[in-house]
Specification:
The chain has 418 residues and is an alpha/beta fold. It has 8 helices and 11 strands. The strands form 3 sheets. Strands 1, 2, 3, 4, 7 and 8 form a 6-stranded mixed beta sheet that branches. A 3-stranded antiparallel beta sheet has the order 9-10-11, with no helix packed on it.
Length: 418
Amino acid sequence: MKKILFLSLIINHLFVCAQFCAYDHIVNTKKHNPAFINNYEYIYDIARSQISSNTATHYIPVVFHIVYNNDSQNLPDSVIHSQIEVLNEDYRRLNTNASETREEFLEFAGDANIEFFLANIDPNGNPTNGIIHQYTEREEFLLIEDIFSTEIALDEVKSSETGGSDAWNTNQYLNIWVCNIGALDIGGYELGQVFGYAYPPVNVDDGLEAVMDELGNAPDWPTEMLSDDENVQGVVLHYSSVGRNNPQANADGMTENNQGRTAVHEIAHYLGLRHIWGDGNAFFGEDGCSVDDGISDTPNASDQAGYVCDFNKNTCSGDTFGSTGDDLPDMVENYMDYSPDNCMNTFTYGQINVMRNVLEICRTELINSEASLQYNEIAISNKKVIKKIDILGRECHTSNFYIEIYNDGSTKKVYTIK
């Protein structure tokens, strides 16, 4: 899939010391794909009729692909276990800094009732710990090859043919690739580090029809940026930003992203959320206060927080939807801002409703009723006919009686009456 990038977004990094996620780049991707339109129309009616009640816990199986070139990039499993703990704390509002949510935002802060677990069964029905360690000869993976590139090169980490690791069934597993993401640079001038990125589901706009608020607002994902390639669905993380016990945490020169919240942020993109400031670009003259993330209980902001936990920041006026009636400040503690990890502490109810509905409408096969995969569910869904033979063992295609041989070694006799 060709993905056109705007040079303007790259130039903007000359004025930014670090980059939290690559959404800023892929938000302007241009792609025309009839399959997307078909998916859009198909899911639309379903999306309109479903509203998440947030009564059941949604358990999501995760597989980590650690794609490494040297020992420092080959993170120990303990770091991955730490990352899962962070995700479950933050998506259940069990994080220790939940108490630091400011009083004016407490009425909007909620428990997403989403939990994550390392996959215990692989796509072939075999036991697994949900962690793949894959050596690569590549020293790094770049978001783009150069400023004139028309494709997102970072997707190469998702294929063994390009030095990465092949995705497990992306409909059934949340795939997270961990690798060395090369810093952005132009002519040798380093512009910033990409910490991660994720694609929202290809049919996200349809699913979000179901989560419009009373004013008719819904998150405004630009549909032209989405990819319908199942093999690239998931999350990519820079190896130094994973977990809160990462021995390489400072390898990127940043101390603000060492609590595992890059993954929290990126998975929220994967579940349909936009940045809290609506991705307005003040540098190019856009009024960020007029650009909304489409969620009614997050205040507008003219720009991202800039990795500063400034509780006095209030860049837009008129956000008086709270019970106090006062103009609300920028919600820098929201997971969807570019704030230091130790500052982030909340999702709002509006954001939670979006994520749960995206799961229930667009990523339904990810949902499990417990933190464990069942063999039969995985085996049956991946069972495929690989050959049809007659009673003498000869391959056949037209006989009324034949035996189907499946990829799991099982067989089935088939007799067709005409």
